[in-house]
Amino acid sequence: MKIGMMTRWNMFSGQSAHAEPIGHAWLEMGHELKVFAPKGLDSYLLYRPDEPFVHRCFVQDVWDQREAKDYFFDPKPYLEEDYEIFLMEMAYLMPMPEMLEIFPQIRKKAKTVLVVHETGLPPDPNWYKFEWDAIVCFDERYKAFMAEAFPEEKIVIIPFPCHPPLHGSKKEARLSLGLPLDKKIVLAYGFNIIFNHVELFPIMESLSREYPAILLLLAHHDPTKLEPQPEFLLLRDEMPATEKLYNYLHACDAYVYYGRISVGVGVSSCVAICLGAGRPVLVSSDCNFFDLSGKEVIKYHGLQDLEQKLRDIFENAEYVKESLALAEEYARKNSGSEIAKQFIELFNKVLGKSLHPARASLL
User: Fold this and answer.
1) H or E segment and range at residue 65
2) Which of 62, 76, 134, 283 stands the most exposed, by the fewest C-beta atoms within 10 Å?
3) How far is the CA of 336 from the CAs of 186, 230, 319, 342, 347, in angstroms?
4) CA distance 235 to 303
5) Mean pLDDT by 10-residue block, N- to C-terminus, for the chain (363 residues)?
6) For residues 101 and 103, what is the distance between their CA atoms, to the nearest angstrom?
7) How wide is the angle at C-alpha 251 spanned by C-alphas 45 and 165, nearest 5°?
8) Which residues pair with 203 in a beta bridge?
9) What is the distance between the alpha carbons of residues 250 and 171, in angstroms, rounded to a whole number?
10) Model-wide pTM > 0.85
11) 3-state DSSP: the chain helix, strand, coil percent, rounded to 5?
12) How many CB atoms lie under 10 A from the CB of residue 218?
């Protein structure tokens, strides 16, 4: 099968975290892939060189980029590349006026599929002008608001992909990363997280009086703004690619996703990436990124409860072991390769095919 995908790629973003594992799985299954990705915008987010099948052919229409001098859109890759499926991730961030002009030509040669990352129905009327053969939502919450604007029979639920389970030695990971072997390590990472996580400092200060413990923050940061730094805090100015992130996850005792309530619905790509590492994942019960999450994550109700749950993790409480087992099961069931198969089944359906030979060979 020949697939074209318009998405962020090789960069730190939820779109990229969704597209890359399924895209690479398609290649391993024997399908062809062309990626149409943005350039210029947030180029510092890129974390690896592009593969030969990636075209950097537009600047995302966001944050007033349309008025910038370096704004551009190149239609040639969309019109000249050969594909029978065209998949777009999060249309709201794409250059919609330009895409609408060439969309009839795309539809002449390919079936079109939208993956909904939007947290609700956007206000831009252009967003509703695209004709999709199928619309993919991550769960029932997304489907509920999408059904207000599009035919429900076109909407399909395919979960957000996870990193497959991958265990590693805590000691070896810490040695390779230059981290202390004799301390409990609580990990947090992401953009703009430093000042979001200041609220965690009293908890870590309290815990560090009972255990030798540190809070490890991975982020782009200006350390001068946190002077003096608490003794329990270790800042590293990096946003590691998944391979190195898993080394950090294996080195830690727990990962805290300190998310806030957002407008609309959402799914955390950070948590989806981390569930397979064999380390407890803690999330706030107030964060609506986890409305449908069960015990595969450990939910805390306020900061005092978070402190207690970190103690439970340090003491190997039984419910922590249960959460780890459920997280591994969830990550395996929803790994990139498994989600990629669900997409291929959808593509076969919209193309009117029974079963592609590349898919049949896996059965």
Assistant:
1) none
2) 76
3) 26, 39, 27, 10, 16
4) 21
5) 96 91 98 92 72 92 58 93 96 88 97 95 92 96 95 97 96 98 92 66 92 89 62 87 94 87 80 95 83 82 94 96 95 97 98 59 34
6) 6
7) 75
8) none
9) 9
10) yes
11) 45, 20, 40
12) 20
3-state SS class at 214: strand
- CA distances in angstroms from 314 to 6, 84, 230, 318, 348, listed in the order given: 43, 51, 21, 11, 48
Kindly report the CA angle at 9 between 7 and 15, in degrees rounded to 5? 55
Q: For residue 110, what are the CA distances in angstroms to 8, 92, 235?
A: 20, 21, 47
228: cis peptide before it, omega within 30°?
Answer: yes
* Predicted local confidence at residue 196, as pLDDT: 65
The 10 Å Cβ neighbour count of residue 42 is 16
pLDDT at 358: 44
- φ, ψ for residue 160, nearest 5 deg: -65, 135
CA distance 195 to 176: 28
How far apart (Å, rounded) are the C-alpha atoms in residues 208 and 185? 10
- Residue 208 in contact with residue 232, Cβ under 8 Å? yes
For 282, the token pair is 């803690």
- Cβ atoms 323, 296 nearer than 8 A: yes
* Tokens read off for 110: 């390919």
Task: Give dist(CA 220, CA 222) in Å, integer.
Answer: 7
To which residue do tokens 């939208």 refer? 114
The token duo for 77 is 């890759």
Torsion angles phi and psi, residue 223, rounded to 5 = -65, -20
Q: Is 61 within 8 Å of 94 (Cβ atoms)?
A: yes
| Closest CA relative to residue 27, chosen from 6, 9, 1, 49 | 1
Q: 213: closest CA among 201, 224, 223?
A: 201
Helix (H) or strand (E) holding 167: none
Domains of the chain, earliest start first: 2-161+335-360 (3.40.50.2000), 170-333 (3.40.50.2000)
Q: List strands edge to edge, sheet with 213-218.
A: 233-236, 213-218, 184-189, 254-257, 281-284, 298-300
The three-state secondary structure class of 32 is: strand
Cα separation, 63 vs 296, whole angstroms: 35
β-partners of residue 157 are 137
